[in-house]
Each structure stands twice: as structure tokens, then as C-alpha cells.
Amino acid sequence: MADILSGKEVAQALGEKLKGEVDQLKSRGIVPGLAIVIVGDRPDSMSYIKGAQKKCSEIGIDCRLVQLPEDLSEKEFVSKIHQLNEDRNVHGILVMRPLPAHISEDRVKYEISPLKDVDCFNPANIAKVMSGEEGGFAPCTPSAVMEILDHYGIELGGKRAVIVGRSMVVGRPLAMMMLRRNATLTICHTKTVDLAKETSRAEILVAAAGKARMIKKDMVGSGAVVIDVGINFDENGKMCGDVDFEAVKDVAGKITPVPGGVGSVTSTVLAKHVIRACRMLIDSEA
Ligand code: NDP
């Protein structure tokens, strides 16, 4: 039976540390601020926002919701982003995606200040993740995976890591972050010829494909560390990951559950990024 890597435990430990940092900032009269921008009211985005607001409030971050009408023009959207870029009480800006089709993500992503871009929307931050340069913001979900590995002292150096999924929000940036820690990476996707062969070689296996319970027991090597990023709902409407948890836990060495795994850490990482953005602003003005 695998050890459970509890995202809740990681989020609690990190949250307490961050709360201490915010208390220190507040004693100097500084309150870290996050603006969450949503166009419309997609239920999945609204549910994420609720979680992020709760986490920010626990940690002491001032979290402002900027909810914009669905029919807002691209020009008006960009103008709102510019306004938040200039707002001294806003240190981090999170734009909920997807945006409505008439607002081009490819155009507007350049408008958010890279210094406030706490979930890596602007290509300037993506470039830093790809090149391994310090000082930018990586996307929150792959950062949450790294937090879990670090919390449990799981070394990456020299390890065979396999990631299933190559999206720009999870698989690709995570691969670069693991590569920077000297793991030997394989990235799998829908055109991978023998997925089971690749995944069963992994010492660290990350599932980020968005397919309910697709990683079966016979696809996982004995003793592997299995990180499940997937958030899916099965035919009974029950939340589940990309990993067949009940079966895989008998072969894996360590495993994250869903719920209670990676998803539990993401909003705490967002808070961490807001505090860092706040410190960066203070340092730049010192
Ligand atoms: P995308 O749909 O953007 O990407 C999925 C990736 O998985 C693609 O690269 C795709 O390959 C690959 N893939 C899909 N099916 C298979 C398959 N059968 N075999 C091999 N590869 C496959 O998803 P995201 O990256 O946005 O999200 C992935 C999962 O993570 C989702 O369940 C999502 O809900 C969850 N998620 C969780 C978060 C959290 O906080 N825990 C945050 C963000 C996402 P190809 O490129 O060839 O199409």
C-alpha cells in the first residue's frame, strides 16, 4: 500500500508559513493584494474563485473579484487590465481562462504586467519557465506539484520522470521545472505509441491528461511516486483523477489522492506568488 501524499497537509504547512509572512508585511502597513478577473460567470471558474478567495482570506491577502460582463469588448478588457497594472494596491492579477471567444487570449496575454502575472499568462513569464530563469512566475498547478514533491522530500535529480500531458498550463511547464531539477524527462501525449511502456518505466509519474482513471495498475512501476493532476467526474458524477487510485495504490510507493491532492495546493501557491509579487514591488522601490 502506497504512502499518501496529502495535498491538504502541504497546503496547511505552506499556508501557515505564508500567513507569518503576511503578518510581517502588515506590521509594516503593507497588505498583499490579488485581483481575480473573470469575464462572465462560468461555474467552474466561479468555483475555483471561491476557493482562492477563501485561501487568500485565511492567509491575510486582500482578494478583489473583478467580474466583467460577458459582452465586454476586447478593448475594454485590455483597458481594465492596464488599470489593474497601475493599481498600487494590486500586486497580483489572475485572469480566469478560457475568456469568451471574442477576446483573443493570444493578443491580451501580453497586456498583463509580467510583475503581477501570478499564474504565468504573459509569454514573458512562460519564457522564464522554459529557460529556467529565476524571478518569473510559473503557472500555479505545476508549481503545486513541485511543492508536494519538496514537502515530502522527494528528490528529482537523476530520476526518470514521465509526464502524461503536454498542455501549456500543466505538462510542458512542469517538464521544464523538473528538468531544471535534473530529472530525466519523458513527455507523453495522445500520439505516444506505447503509453504503458513509457509510464511503467517512471520513477516519478505525473498524470495530467484529463481522462478519468486512465492510468491503470499495470501502467505503473512498483514503488513509483504517482502524482495525479487530473480533475474529472466519473459516470456517477464523483470527482476522480486520471489515475485509477484504488488499484494503483497497491503498486505505487507514494501517491496523491483526488480530491485532496494537487488541487488542494494550487490556491495556496497562488497566494505564495501574490506575496512574492508584493515583495518584488517593495524591493524595486527600496
Ligand atoms: P488539456 O486537455 O489542455 O491537455 C491534456 C493533455 O493530455 C494533452 O497534451 C493530451 O495530448 C494529453 N492526453 C489526453 N488524453 C490522453 C491519452 N489518452 N493518452 C495520452 N495523453 C493524453 O488539459 P490540461 O493540461 O488543462 O489539464 C489536464 C488535467 O489536469 C485535467 O483533468 C484538468 O482538469 C486538470 N487540472 C487540474 C488543476 C489542478 O489544480 N489540480 C489545474 C489545471 C488542470 P495531446 O496534446 O496529444 O492532445
Describe this structure in words.
The chain has 286 residues and is an alpha/beta fold. It folds into 2 domains: 29-115, Leucine Dehydrogenase, chain A, domain 1 (Rossmann fold, 3-Layer(aba) Sandwich); 140-263, Rossmann fold (3-Layer(aba) Sandwich), CATH 3.40.50. 42% of the residues lie in helices and 15% in strands. It has 10 helices and 11 strands. It has helices spanning 7-27, 43-59, 74-86, 105-108, 123-131, 140-151, 171-180, 195-200, 245-248, 262-285, and strands spanning 3-4, 33-39, 62-68, 92-95, 160-164, 184-188, 204-207, 225-228, 232-233, 239-240, 254-255. Strands 1-11-8-7-5-6 form a 6-stranded parallel β-sheet. Strand 2 (33-39), helix 2 and strand 3 (62-68) form a beta-alpha-beta unit. Helix 1 runs parallel beside helix 10 (262-285), helix 2 crosses helix 10 (262-285) and helix 6 (140-151) packs across helix 7 (171-180). The longest helix is centred in the last third of the chain and has 24 residues, at 262-285. It is globular, with a radius of gyration of 19 Å. The termini are far apart. 42% of the residues are buried. The model has no long low-confidence stretch (mean pLDDT 97). The chain binds NADPH dihydro-nicotinamide-adenine-dinucleotide phosphate. Residues 141, 164-167, 169-171, 188-192, 195, 208-211, 214, 229-232, 262-263, 266 line the site of NADPH dihydro-nicotinamide-adenine-dinucleotide phosphate.
Write out key terms for the chains shown.
286 residues, Rossmann fold, 2 domains, alpha/beta, six-stranded parallel β-sheet, binds NADPH dihydro-nicotinamide-adenine-dinucleotide phosphate, globular, single chain, three-stranded parallel β-sheet
